[in-house]
Amino acid sequence: MVTILHNPRCSKSRAGLKLLEDKGVEVEVCKYLDEALTPDQLTDILVKLGKRPMDIIRTNEDIFKEEFKDKELSDEEWILAMLEYPRLIERPIIINGDKAVIGRPAEIIETIL
């Protein structure tokens, strides 16, 4: 089963979900703004992405500009920040087994199917 960290209000996230559905992929939708991730889940996602926390931070979000713009945080502190403010997490993230991608553009999702 493929999992998508999904924000239904985001056009890129909707496009990623549509691509998966159009390909007939069985999808588990995780609305990460409503269903809080655990530190272990977020760490696991980062490992599957092959990225560090700062690599998946949405730096254009108001909360980033207001709270974090000029701060230097450790990876662990960024993880805690993303858990407290999930809007900071880039979207959509698609997970298939031990692989994951940020679905921007949506076509990149095909690389892990």
Question: In words, what does this structure look like?
Answer:
With 113 residues, this protein is α+β, with helices and mostly antiparallel strands. The chain has a single domain (2-112), classed as Glutaredoxin (3-Layer(aba) Sandwich), CATH 3.40.30. 35% of the residues lie in helices and 14% in strands. It is built from four helices and four strands; from the N terminus they run βαβαααββ. It has helices spanning 11-22, 39-49, 62-67, 75-84, and strands at residues 2-5, 27-30, 93-96, 99-102. Strands 2-1-3-4 form a four-stranded mixed β-sheet, sandwiched between helices. It is globular and about 45 Å long.
Please outline what is shown here.
By secondary structure, the protein is an alpha+beta fold.
Classify the beta-strand content into a percent band: 5-15%
Number of domains: 1
Shape: globular
In the CATH hierarchy, the third-tier topology is known as: Glutaredoxin
Q: What integer is the average pLDDT?
A: 97
Annotation field: number of helices: 4
> In terms of per-residue confidence, which ranges show pLDDT below 50 for 5 or more consecutive residues?
none
Structural class: alpha+beta
- At the first level of CATH, what is the class? Alpha Beta
* Straight-line distance between termini: 10 Å
- Using only C-alpha atoms, the radius of gyration works out to 14 Å
Q: Strand order across the biggest sheet? A: 2-1-3-4
Q: Please, what is the CATH homologous superfamily?
A: Glutaredoxin
Can you give the helix content as a percent range? 25-40%
Number of β-strand runs:
4
CATH architecture: 3-Layer(aba) Sandwich
